[in-house]
Amino acid sequence: MLALVDGNNFYCSCERVFQPRLKNRPVVVLSNNDGCAIARSDEAKALGIKMGTPWFKIRHLEEEAGLVAMSANFALYGDMSDRMMTLAAGLGHMQEVYSIDESFIDLSGIPGDLVRRARIIRRRIHQWIGIPTCIGIGPTKTLAKLANAIAKSAERKPGSYPAHHAQICHLGACSREELGQLLQATEVGDVWGVGPRIGAQLRAQGVHTALDLQRMNPAAAKAGWSVMLEKTVRELNGVPCIEFEDEPPAKQQIACTRSFGHPITELQDLQEAITEFACRAAEKLRRQNSHTVHIMAFIRTSPFREKDPQYSHSASIPLPSPTSDSAHITQAASAILKHIYRPGFKYAKAGVMLMDLQPATRRQLTLDLDAEMPENRVRLMQAMDEVNQRFGRGTLHLASAGTTGRHRAWAMKQERLSSGFTTDWTGLAVTF
DNA sequence: TCTGGGGTCCTAGGACCC
DNA sequence: TCTGGGGTCCTAGGACCC
Questions:
Q1: Strand B: which nucleotides have any atom within 7 A of a protein Cβ?
Q2: Is pLDDT at A403 greater than 70 in this prediction?
Q3: A193: Cβ under 7 Å from strand B?
Q4: How far is the CA of A304 from the C1' of B2 (A)?
Q5: From CA A403, how far away is CA A398, in angstroms rounded?
Q6: What is the DSSP letter of A412?
Q7: Straight-line distance from CA A322 to C1' C10, in Å?
Q8: Is the dihedral of CA A402, A408, A410, A416 positive or negative?
């Protein structure tokens, strides 16, 4: 048996922990650049605000409905997530952290009443961290996901499902009949793994509910769609097909991409942005102890500014040898930028991607008489990471990322950022 | 004026090999 | 008249997830 512990409206809930004035009010958290809504409180959902709605389209609700918008504070959410995950892990003996606000817990062999156990953990997370959660339990990941969705719906929309499933729903404890009824009350598009595209195709074939999908022939699911959907059908029938991943596998690619706070036109500004993205990506790369051998960079104008001339281009180059050195990676990204840059456009976004990652322990020997001592470079990067870890991001950086004093034309817009309540001494909450 | 960022997996088709 | 069969690897694009 598996559980899925999931924070409700996670980013909004994190903001509410330290700003009680936000309770019982419609709240949204905005993406980078205060672009669009990426998290909504129940009250905001009730106003009809959809995931991903641009802020300028709902801004009028500030006045009209008391809507509060916050800039995304990912440092805070990451820290709150760590705390929540630690407590959630107590539910069973293995945990898979699936996203910033969700983790699967392996409950196999856990004796006693699982619902009671889940209730204790849920209460503890709420009491110690302040984050409300829902817990879904089922024999497969897909069913645990579904149970979680039912637990949330039953809480938020009374009448959608039987009230006793609110907050905690254990599908493994349901009778066959009851499971059938719950599946029938669930739209096929709400099943994990069924997106808008496949959902529409399924409905066109008369498959409207999770129950219809459960009863589908797995072979037909594979023939008509893919092995993915076949697995989903089997999982709905209680046959585990998606593995539990105790520890996260190393990433196969690492990206750092950003939209700019304002459109920029100059090569030097792009150069600074690309340098910063390359360095951040390199940092992530070193954190997972990998090397990259292939670098891609892109720049683009905004597709939403339809009247502006549009330009979007990317290129990639292989590196002479695997590396995680910020300077080498930046050099390559910078060379790509010079190659693809065209003057006369208003650039809105750029990014760097590191591909073909491999373990840093695999070493390719080359005969390069001009090469610097590689151990020295490794030590330099370690020192840089340690300094930045201790004194804050950007304390040590490459000069091409821009020097202090020079205006960062491409800086992100964050007009409604909350403090680093748990991540920064100067951001501690002092009064409530 | 104003529209996010970061991932994974699968599939089909082409190139290439013997 | 009649021109094989089987396999791998790579890539681009599509779909999904949060």
A1: 1-11
A2: no
A3: no
A4: 10
A5: 9
A6: P
A7: 20
A8: positive
The answer to whether some atom of strand B lies closer than 7 Å to the beta carbon of A305 is yes
Nucleotide nearest to A303 (CA to C1'): B3
φ, ψ of residue A26 to 5 degrees: the values are -70, 125
A226 touches strand B (CB under 7 A): yes
Single-letter code of the amino acid located at A242: I
Q: Which two tokens stand for residue A28?
A: 């949204």
Q: Which nucleotide is nearest to A284 (CA to C1')?
A: B6
At a CB cut-off of 8 Å and minimum separation 6, what does A321 contact? A293, A364, A366, A368
Q: What is the pLDDT of residue A370?
A: 59
CATH code for the structural domain at A2-8+76-236: 3.30.70.270
In chain A, what are the domain boundaries? Answer: 2-8+76-236, 10-74, 254-401
Report the protein residue whose CA lies nearest the C1' of nucleotide B3.
A54
Do domains A2-8+76-236 and A10-74 share one topology? The answer is no
- Residue A136 parent element (H or E): strand A133-138
Strand C nucleotides, any atom under 7 Å to a protein CB? 14-18
Question: Could you tell me which residues come within 8 angstroms of residue A186 by beta carbon, excluding any fewer than 6 positions away?
Answer: A146, A149, A150, A209, A210, A211
Residue A109 structure tokens: 């062999």
- Please give the single-letter amino acid code of residue A175: S
Q: Which CATH architecture has domain A254-401?
A: 2-Layer Sandwich (3.30)
Taking CA atoms, A305 is separated from A229, A342, A347, in Å, by 38, 18, 11
Give the span between the Cα atoms of A329 and A401, in whole angstroms.
Answer: 13
A152: CB within 7 A of chain C nucleic strand: no
Residue A120 contacts strand B, CB under 7 A: no
Q: What is the pTM of this model?
A: 0.94
Nucleotide nearest the Cα atom of A149 (by C1'): C18
Whole-number average pLDDT of chain A: 93
N- to C-terminal Cα separation, chain A: 41
Q: Is the dihedral of CA A217, A223, A224, A229 positive or negative?
A: positive
Paired strand residues for A136: A4, A169
CATH says A10-74 is which class?
alpha beta
Could you tell me where the DSSP H helices lie in A5-113? 10-18, 42-46, 55-58, 61-65, 74-88
Query: Is the distance between the Cβ of A255 and the closest atom of strand B smaller than 7 Å?
Result: yes
pLDDT tens-digit profile of A150-204?
999 999 999 999 999 999 999 999 999 999 999 999 999 999 999 999 999 999 9
